[in-house]
Prior knowledge:
The protein is α/β, with parallel strands linked by helices. It has helices spanning about 5-25, 40-55, 80-90, 90-95, 115-120, 140-145, 195, 205-215, 245-250, 270-280, 295-300, 310-320, 340-355, 380-405; strands spanning about 30-35, 60, 70-75, 100-105, 130, 150-155, 175-180, 180, 200, 220-225, 260, 285-290, 325-335, 355-360, 410-415, 425-430, 435, 445-455, 460-465.
Amino acid sequence: MAIFVSPEEKLKQDKYISAVLSLVGGQGKKAFVYTLGCQQNEADSEKIMGLLLQMGYEKTDDEKEADILIVNTCAIREHAEKRALSIIGRFKHYKVARPDIVIGVCGCMTAQEHRANQLKHSYHYVDFTLGTGALHLLAELVLNALSKGKRRFLLDEETPKIAEGLLPVRESSFRAWVSIMYGCNNFCTYCIVPYVRGRERSRKMQDILDEIRELAKKGYREITLLGQNVNSYGKDLEDKPTIADLLNEIAKIEGDFIIHLMTSHPKDASREMIEAITKDKRTKSHFHLPLQSGSDAVLKRMNRHYDTQRYLDIIKELKSKNPDIVLTTDIIVGFPTETEEDFQKTLDIIKEVEFDTIYSFIYSPRKGTPAYSMEQISEDVKHERYERFCQVQNEIANKLNQKMQGKIYRVLVDGKSKGNEKMYTSRTEGNKIVHFECDTDHTGQFVNVKITRADTFNLFGEIIN
Ligand code: 5AD
Ligand code: SF4
């Protein structure tokens, strides 16, 4: 099955782009994209905006003045879906006031049949939906909506594809997302992603390297390699390159930039991959490795294919190669059947590893996944455990932050902090946020900062010349 958009399809879509351009171009029509969810969605939104600009729209950050509104949705937890529906609901009055505007919904939520039906039947002002593997069809859908064609709800009409050559409108001029693969084959029992983003599809190594070379040439200072499980990069490609091969090739590209990998699966974390990330100083400072639970019984029911011993072995190897590495993880609290004993094991392992940051989530049942029909634990117990979890992790984070005091770190400056003209926000190479005061604006540049104060959630420093 072809996973790449064919040249014929590309040509067809280019014609739709030109057709929309001839309808809306040069009239100052505006496009607004609202993004929910993960970095993958942010990257997709940048591509969506790129396509809209090609169609003749101008980007706006003010939804009220938009002629086309797109909501890029997330389905990972119920809360994200509720937010998406409320935003789509908010957009209704724009369409009532100006029936000529176009409203589209894309992203993970739209790939679920019950949600696509809900949008079709209860949100009559939505012109189209579009799954994450079909972004290249956007112009066709926009043209259809502009010419008052039938509303389109693309569910399984198209096999998810990879479209090369889309020109993203990047939100930042110094931090960039580079998708290296799409989809997921792992079917962790709690997770909706494999159902809504389809099977793993890797981009060709050459296309990824070209994109990174281009970013390096433009002076980008941080590049995040994106994929649901970047460790299994290449398995679906003909010549089977591995993530280690890719990293070794990236290492040959010159440039002063930091590289993050987001995100990895412990079952596929190979020795070669660890060697590759610790060999390049641009990748060695930070590693994100989702653990999900500290109980082997729960990991089994999550279908994670590793146990805590294997996880700890990987951490040991990472730390032995690079003692200063910043480790971050994902944890789910309150997975179905989780006992107090299971939960204690999660607390034990996070105390043992001492992660700098944990992205922790209360389990959210997702219709269509195996865990949805497992024995659920009560909301009260989930919340009570989550509170205890946060207390333990906050103490660890505070301790690790205190240890940074007095030390000097190279940070990439994000920009001014809100509410104080002279305060700037920046991130260390290990991705920790540091605030500092400065008279000069160094946004988008690396500077050295000495940490002078630390608490659980914040690090403060002073700039060192
Ligand atoms: N409920 C709570 N958290 C979830 N995640 C994925 N699915 C769910 C769910 N149903 C978390 C996992 C994953 C992160 C991106 O989101 O920890 O690593
Ligand atoms: Fe979801 Fe598991 Fe795939 Fe990550 S690896 S996207 S948690 S199914």
